[in-house]
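Handoff note, outgoing to incoming analyst
You'll be picking up this chain. Sequence as last confirmed:
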Amino acid sequence: MKRIFLSLVLLCSGACCMAQEAKGFDIDLWQNGLPNSNGIDKTQPYDDETRNFKPSIRVFLPEDSVKNGMAVLICPGGGYRVLSIGQEGYEWADFFTKQGIATIVLRYRMPMGVTEVPISDATEAMRIIRENAEKWGIDTNKVGIMGSSAGGHLASTIATHSEEATKPNFQILFYPVISMDKEYTHLDSHNCLIGENASKELEDLYSNQLQINSQTPPAILLLSDDDFLVSPRNSAEYYLALKKAGVKANMHVYPAGGHGWGCGKCFKYHDIMLQDLQIWIDALYAPAPQFPPFFQKKD
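Most recent structure output, in case you need it:
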């Protein structure tokens, strides 16, 4: 079943995705040596076939004429087992750069049960983006994070667990894994990240709906109602927790589409989804609307 699903995702990616025009450059994350190990990254050559992904980022910068200071770090999905780095990563670059948004795609290491490995890669990527902000034309207060599926879990982990220096300013989450609760998590992601026999304390720590507070960055969640791989309850719980904490959040649930559609045009609601995302992005840093006095909140 997993092989069939991956084949369908690859077919969708190869035949239906947006044409990519943006050109990027690569930067290795750990040029002075890895801070931790998943057991193969220090002993085997980097090789995508063996899932020994070299931790790096690919940076796509917008033209000077359209850049607006925004940036987004993209964490592709793949169940913390593989990387869907095409339609959930590189192929988003054209969409964002044409809006003036710097796009940085993360190639992160698989955890293989060592939880901190992908988290450290994503955290370091955020640090590098802010370190190079002036050179890349980025406003350090407009750096967001985006993730799909297990990449959505990684993105929401950075959003809810990071210190101020590496915390993103906004979140874009596509059909994300959010919870590690075995009742409705994606079990393969759970097992790859924290282990099959993880303690309740560890499951709670990485159930990101439980880690939200008033300082959590605003978020948009986009998913299909018929997602057969990651329960929509993940997104619903996260959205409700954000609203309870007073954090701005939007959620768009499309009637059909399953899981893993990314930027693929074979997703029936592709154009509507892009419009929903565009509206939300445009509103992020827009001036607050001025309401008539009788609509204003009273103390």
